[in-house]
Design goal:
CATH architecture of the largest domain in chain C: 3-Layer(aba) Sandwich
Strand order of the largest sheet of chain C: 2-1-3-15-6
Largest sheet of chain B: none
CATH superfamily of chain B: MetI-like
Shape of chain B: globular
Distance between the termini of chain C: 74 Å
Distance between the termini of chain B: 30 Å
Radius of gyration of chain B: 24 Å
Radius of gyration of chain C: 24 Å
Strand content of chain B: under 5%
Largest sheet of chain C: 5 strands, mixed
Largest interface: A-B, 99 and 98 residues
Oligomer: heterotrimer
Structural class of chain B: mainly alpha
Number of domains of chain B: 1
Number of strands of chain C: 16
Chain lengths: 294, 282, 446
């Protein structure tokens, strides 16, 4: 065997765990679900090919499909930028070089490691309209707080509130990014007489932009799959008045409550296409604001 | 920084620390209260304001803890969760490291393409593969066991592979080259040279894997049938949506569920933050 | 090695040891018996009743041991579907009858006739309450038998009524009278916040039977979702809620411990004067506030409406098609439901305060003694024996139908849609779903 062939073989041997997993647990199911999206399939009886009927129903005749899409998009449009902003702001603050900063880092990171189910239950409790903590704080200011979890106008904000609370998770990654910014850039800027804001705008944010970009892409993808919080808070129903019927939850309900896996697969594929398009769009904006290299 | 700025920074930090901490304090406070203390009754209860004094339970209802442990088999769920976490952390970190080494340090044909494919799968929503995977695991007879949760972990996790390969690329080539001259093959280099140098990065992946498994809700929901196999995240949901349960017990269970994670992070945070900075999020 | 590492190591060992000995709580250990995996939806205090019945069964047996497990409420159907399609279901499960037809339509359930002896079959078909029996049937076969059915009525706090100058022993003649009564009982604080709710009305499904023929005509097998009588029923309920204030009612209700099965239940607690709830609350009041003075009234129909309306809900035992121990499962089903030994089953039904399967149970000495001691329970027996008690429609899309029905009721009672809009929308959604199912080749025959 030539050295090159040997190297190829070694390389493939090393990546084989992933390659096998990719073929078995990703590629095959991926293609299979494409087929199932054209079927009537309840997972008990064998799938029956019915052509485009699932897609037709979904796109032209299903109010809840659009509703769940809207619930998800609305959440994404507010929560993604907001958590991004909070994450970056916290990182800038926690990058300060003062004594005891490690303690503060831990405090801000804490909410993001509280397990989702526990966090949801905590929020269900602190947002109790009458005896919950939040409304009682509002009462101090003479404001009667809303019924956060049972009023459909407020439930999306409740979930956004939860997301912002846990936004410290991305802070660590931004912090790491900030640490990578070479100090001499700031020193040079100081010599040029730049103030703190100018440094932030000209050095910190551009240098941090690849990390922000990475986080943006991951959180958009994650948001389209938003499930656990909505499932726990509404006990799987998506209520009140469908205000927590996120796309992934509606799909889950179609699959595992109404046993309509064909429809569920069609929904999954539409989700896939939406995620691809939005990731693609974000990538296209990349040139304008993401700075790689020095 | 001037003295004045420093004081300003501390004030800002302390004020901002209240929102992340208060819900947790409220959780612990509720977990030690009685029913009468949490449901304030009577005229004007609806408009009663918050006070820090109300955070302190009196009398302290310690019995919420043993009671909540009785309502769900907490220790059994904890045992299952720890077992699952150990298996998945070990499997996914080792397999991801192996794959990352292949991508980062071996120059084989197609390596760029496969790496791109792997990154692309990170964008694939899990919902797309959910049903065929369920059917697959059912056909293998794995439903109701931990296998559907553990086995995929042996096939490396793209995110960890990505992080580790970024790190492996930063390691100097010289030692590996001289080892090759001495006749060591790639596997030996991987085990003897690379792994010992990569502890912080590996620890970071391990922590991510641990948090992910400890938190995982959909996996147990889909694949576990018997309650003696439930994990805490899933078992606690049964608790949250049990209409007969009371908030004090639920908060006690949530405290017990969250505490190990906080302790773990507390002990591991140095390695963790160091690991993140060395791998970088780029 | 640092001190902290040593401490950590010792802690880890201790936790490890503690965990390795952790065991599921089980009542007793019956070695060598065939196990029956039983899933149910009773948590908290109720789970203790289940354990008690299971214990009696296990003690009466030499062959089987039943092992109960709690599966949370509305997630229980999903859990069942996952386990049944995954191939590792329980042996027997107690589900809500609203979820039964879709499972039967997907071939996930065992027709129980196949497990009955000819005598048992004969008995079941002739000696059980028709509406209760039908609630477990689909396309002519029986898939579920009740172990504790539910009926609903209005619980009335007699002290509150007297305080407001109303005689609790003269029930309202019409629904409008009930609403007027509720208004008198209501209390608000200075800011207009609800402080005591007068009347809490719920369930369009059952009120529909009081105002007309309900949402499903069993004779013509037709849905009647936006018929004038359904609209009238929902309008009456929504108008009542509007009188309280939609927002106000919602906020008040959200802050109550409504799910509580103990003294914190808002009715026991005095937070609501008249509330619509299930018959099992009689047993709870007996346990947690035995000296409470209260009445139970059936839904008062409007002028010319149907008296004593009822809709059979509750817990029905089913046996999955893929169950491993069907024989044992059926033994357990018979034991609890009272298909054999009605008087013994009456005891279990009374422990939970449930509606039984057959007149033999309901009029057994044990059950009658219970009703005598708890006279308020009689209202539910009257509804059960009456002509206006209905089973759910046996349609394969029942899960979807009930979800939609609840969404419509919810929208109207929140004031976000008018009752007519809500029901027209409901009709439209259901027709669309039916058309889709037809096109996709689902079998929706009855």
């Amino acid at each position: 065997m030539s050295p090159k062939a040997r190297e190829n073989l070694t390389g493939y041997l090393f990546i084989s765990p992933w390659l096998i997993g990719f073929l078995v647990f990703t590629l095959w199911p991926f293609l299979r679900s494409f087929y199932l999206s054209f079927c009537n399939y309840n997972i008990v009886q064998p799938p029956k090919f019915i052509g485009l009927a699932n897609y037709q129903m979904m796109l032209f005749n299903d109010e809840l499909f659009y509703k769940s899409l809207w619930v998800t998009l609305r959440y994404a449009l507010v929560a993604v930028p907001l958590t991004l902003f909070v994450g970056v702001a916290l990182a800038l603050l926690l990058n300060l070089n003062v004594k005891g900063i490690a303690v503060f880092r831990t405090i801000f990171y804490l909410p993001s490691i509280v397990p989702t189910v526990a966090m949801t239950s905590i929020f269900m409790w602190i947002l109790n309209p009458q005896v919950g903590m939040v409304n009682r704080i509002l009462a101090l200011a003479g404001v009667t707080g809303p019924a956060w979890l049972s009023d459909p106008v407020w439930t999306p904000w409740t979930l956004i509130f939860m997301a912002v609370w846990a936004a410290g998770g991305s802070m660590v990654i931004y912090l790491a990014g900030l640490k990578d910014i070479p100090q001499y850039l700031y020193e040079a800027a100081t010599l040029d007489g730049a103030g703190a804001f100018r440094k932030m705008r000209m050095i910190t944010l551009p240098m941090l932009s690849p990390v922000i970009f990475f986080n943006l892409v991951m959180s958009v993808i994650g948001t389209f799959q938003y499930f656990t919080q909505a499932f726990v808070i509404s006990n799987g129903s998506g209520g009140p008045e469908d205000s927590t019927l996120f796309y992934a939850l509606y799909m889950f309900k179609r699959c595992w409550k109404y046993m309509d896996m064909g429809y569920g697969s069609a929904m999954a594929w539409v989700l896939f296409i939406i995620v691809m398009i939005s990731t693609g769009l974000i990538f296209r904006t990349q040139k304008r604001w993401v700075h790689y290299g020095r | 920084m001037t003295r004045f700025n420093k004081i300003l920074a501390y004030i800002a930090l302390i004020c901002l620390s209240i929102p992340p901490l208060l819900p947790l304090v409220w959780m612990i406070s509720t977990s030690l209260k009685t029913n009468e203390q949490i449901y304030m009754k009577g005229e004007g209860a609806a408009t009663k304001g918050f006070s820090f004094a109300s955070l302190i339970p009196s009398p302290v209802a310690w019995n919420n803890y043993p009671d909540s442990l009785e309502t769900i088999p907490f220790m059994v769920y904890l045992k299952n969760t720890v077992f699952l976490c150990l298996c998945i952390v070990i499997a996914s970190v080792i397999s991801s490291a192996i794959v990352a080494y292949g991508f980062a340090r071996i120059n084989f044909k197609g390596s760029k393409i496969w790496f791109g494919v792997m990154l692309a799968t990170m964008a694939l929503p899990g919902q797309v593969t959910m049903i065929p995977n369920f059917a697959l695991f059912r056909a293998l007879g794995w439903y109701g066991t931990y296998l559907p949760l553990i086995v995929p972990a042996f096939c490396a996790t793209p995110f960890y592979v990505f992080l580790l390969s970024q790190f492996f690329k930063t390691l100097p080539d010289e030692m590996a080259e001289s080892a090759k001259v001495d006749g060591a093959n790639e596997w030996v280099i991987f085990c003897r040279l690379i792994i010992p140098l990569s502890k912080p990065a590996l620890a970071t992946c391990a922590l991510f894997a641990f948090l992910g498994t400890w938190n995982d809700f959909l996996g147990p929901l889909l694949y576990l049938s018997d309650s003696s196999k439930y994990t805490l995240a899933y078992g606690l949901q049964q608790f949250v949506n049990n209409p007969y349960v009371n908030w004090m017990q639920l908060m006690a269970a949530s405290t017990l569920f969250t505490l190990p994670i906080i302790l773990l992070f507390f002990f591991a945070q140095k390695t963790f933050i160091q690991g993140i900075s060395t791998t970088g999020g780029k | 090695m640092k001190v902290s590492q040593v401490i950590l190591g010792i802690l880890a060992l201790a936790v490890g040891y503690g965990l390795s000995t952790a065991k599921m709580p089980s009542t007793e250990d019956y070695k060598g018996r065939e196990k029956i995996k039983f899933w149910h939806r009773w948590g908290g205090e109720w789970e203790k009743v289940v354990f008690k019945i299971a214990k009696e069964f296990n003690e009466s047996q030499t062959q089987y041991e039943v092992v109960p497990m709690f599966v949370t409420g509305s997630g229980s159907e999903t859990k069942f579907i996952l386990s049944a399609t995954g191939g590792d279901p329980c042996d027997v499960m107690s589900i809500w009858n609203g979820g039964l037809a879709p499972l039967a339509a997907a071939d996930l359930l065992t027709p129980l006739e196949t497990l009955m002896t000819p005598e048992e079959l004969e008995y079941f078909q002739t000696k059980t309450y028709p509406s209760v029996r039908q609630s477990g049937q689909f396309r002519g076969k029986t898939y579920g038998i009740t172990i504790g059915a539910d009926l609903f009525g209005y619980y009335v706090n007699a002290d509150h009524l007297r305080e407001a100058g109303i005689d609790p022993d003269t029930p309202p003649k019409t629904f409008a009278d009930l609403v007027a009564m509720g208004k008198k009982l209501e209390k608000k604080d200075a800011n207009g916040n609800l402080h005591r709710m007068g009347l809490n009305a719920a369930s369009l499904q059952t009120h529909g039977y009081a105002f007309g023929a309900g949402f499903w005509d069993d004779k013509t097998k037709q849905l009647r979702l936006n018929t004038p009588d359904m609209i009238a029923a929902l309008t009456a309920m929504a108008e009542q809620r509007k009188g309280v204030g939609f927002q106000n009612a919602q906020r008040f209700w959200a802050s109550q411990n409504t799910g509580s099965s103990t003294g914190a239940w808002p009715f026991i607690d005095g937070a609501v004067s008249i509330t619509y709830d299930g018959q099992w609350r009689v047993e709870e009041i007996r346990k947690y506030k035995p000296d409470m003075d209260y009445r139970v009234w059936p839904i008062p129909p409007p002028e010319g409406g149907n008296p004593l309306p009822g809709s059979i809900g509750g817990n029905f035992m089913i046996i999955p098609a893929a169950a491993k121990n069907k024989k044992g499962a059926f033994e357990w089903l018979k034991f609890w439901s009272g298909l054999t030994n009605p008087n013994r089953a009456a005891k279990f039904e009374n422990w939970g305060g449930w509606i039984p399967l057959s007149p033999d149970v309901a009029h057994s000495p044990t059950y009658e003694a219970y009703v005598k001691q708890n006279p308020r329970f009689q209202t539910f027996i009257d509804i059960l024996d009456g002509p206006n008690v209905h089973a759910y429609p046996p349609v394969a899309y029942l899960g979807f139908l009930i979800d939609e029905l609840q969404r419509a009721e919810d929208a109207a009672l929140r004031g976000s849609k008018t009752p007519k809009e809500a029901l027209d929308q409901l009709q439209k959604n259901v027709q669309k779903e039916l058309a889709k199912r037809k096109e996709m080749g689902f079998d929706d025959s009855l």
